[in-house]
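Need tokens for this chain, all 178 residues.
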Amino acid sequence: MDQFLNLLLPALISSSIVGVAIGLIFKKRNETIAAEVRNQFEQNMTIFKTNYLWKEKSVSELLGQIYIQFNRTNRAFNRYKNTNLYLEAKVLKDGNEKIRNLLLEKAHLIPAELIDDANQLIEHYDVWLEEFARHRDSENPNLDQKFIYAGPLGFRFPKKAEENFKNKYHELRNELYA
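Here are the structure tokens for all 178 residues:
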């Protein structure tokens, strides 16, 4: 029995030491994995918050305002009969300028898939505003011209671009607030 105890005692001590060593190794490994998971979560959360804030700014500072200006100028265009200088100068010109300026000033908020559409709109509005200045802003405006159009100059209004902007507004707004 003494011989058994002499063998058992060193075996218990050595197995305890090995168990503690293995436990410490696994504890350290678990802490490392937990830290990596925590870091990855924080990175993902930062990316999510950044994307969310960008989308929120895009909707509130760009897309929402453009959406309202599109509707405003469409309603004015549909009401336009003959030569209505007030409607043309105060609503259409103002709306066209606001949309163009928003696109230029808030370009960093334009979703990547709408860049080509934005360029088409800016080009159309630049030509339209140039024509407006040529025919209406001068001291002797040309009142014979019924309406200012950029289409005959090869710069028709890009309806598809307007539609894409409106769709993106609805998509982001629903994603953020629905």
